Structures are given as C-alpha cells and as structure tokens.
Amino acid sequence: MLLRTAMMPVIGSAVRRQMTTRWPEVIFRSALRTSAAPNPVPEYLAALPARYIVSSPTIETMAAELSAFNADMAAFGRLSSDLPMTVVFGDRDGVIDYRWHSAWIQRSHDQALFKTLRGVGHMPHHVRAEVCVELLEQLVDTVSIVESKRTLVA
Q1: pLDDT in tens, 63-74
Q2: What mean pLDDT is reported for the chain?
Q3: CA–CA separation, 60 vs 151, rounded Å?
Q4: Long-range contacts of 115-120 (CB under 8 A, 24+ apart)
Q5: Average pLDDT per run of 10 along the chain, which is 154 residues long?
Q6: Angle CA 79–85–90, to nearest 5
Q7: CA distances (Å), 48 to each of 35, 43, 54, 138, in order?
C-alpha cells in the first residue's frame, strides 16, 4: 500500500521524500519484519543499510517491478498449461494468502507442483533456502527431460 501511494501522481513525490528523509530506518525494518514473520529476519538482510533500500530510485524500481509482476500475472492464464511449474509458499505468510494464490494458479496449471512450508512466512527462499534450491534443481531436471523428449520427437 505504501509503495503504491509513493508512486501516485501528484502526492507520490511528497510521500517518497518523507519516506526517504524522515523514516527510512523505520520503514525498512518494519517491512523486513512483516515480510519475514513469523521467522526472524535473516542476518544478511538485517545488515543492509536502510538508506540504500529506502531511496527514491529504489522505491521507483520496486514500484516498476510490482507493476511488471501484476502485468505478468494478468497474462499468466495464457501460459501453456503443460509448462513445468513449482510454487513455494509459507503457510504463515502475512503478506499474501497462499491458499487463494494456490487455487488461482491451479485453475490454469493443474500440473503445477505446490510446496507449502510449515511455520514459514513470505520469504521461504530466505528462511528455507535449502528447500527452495532443491525444488529449483528438480524443476531444472524436469525441464531438461521435457526438452530432451521434444528434441527426440522433432
């Protein structure tokens, strides 16, 4: 919500100025705690200097990424339903409702593999990196097998 407000016409620049000059530390630490909850913030993220993360160019970049993500999700249903896909959620995510997102993805991609990690919040790739790496390796293996079969058929 704050990110969207910071990018609004007319008031956005004033919001960004307040965010970056008055409250960068508070905003950054709060966002990290919210995203990581219920897990502790990983030390390497906690060590990041707030002034580099809560800066006008960074806020603009995050807003552009959010906009691009939303556009990608709008086109999601047009992806091939046989596209290998692995989706990782934390069951304690306070940022998104993983059940809603799982059902939404499942409607378009019934072959998708879903992994919900118990006791994990919005950042499973930071909190349970080893599980995410393992799932990514499995996905790469799956894609390699699919591509090999396509090459043999062609």
Answers
A1: 888 888 888 888
A2: 86
A3: 42
A4: 115/86, 115/87, 115/88, 115/89, 116/88, 116/89, 116/90, 116/91, 117/88, 117/89, 117/90, 117/91, 118/91, 119/38, 119/39, 119/90, 119/91, 119/92, 120/39, 120/90, 120/91, 120/92, 120/93
A5: 74 78 85 94 93 83 83 82 90 93 88 94 96 95 72 55
A6: 120
A7: 15, 9, 11, 31
State the residue for tokens 């965010």: 19
Q: Compute the distance between CA of residue 54 and CA of residue 21 in angstroms, rounded to an integer.
A: 9
For position 131, what pLDDT does the model report?
Answer: 97
Whole-angstrom Cα distance, residue 27 to residue 20?
A: 9
Residue 79, CB-side half-sphere exposure with 13 Å CA sphere: 18
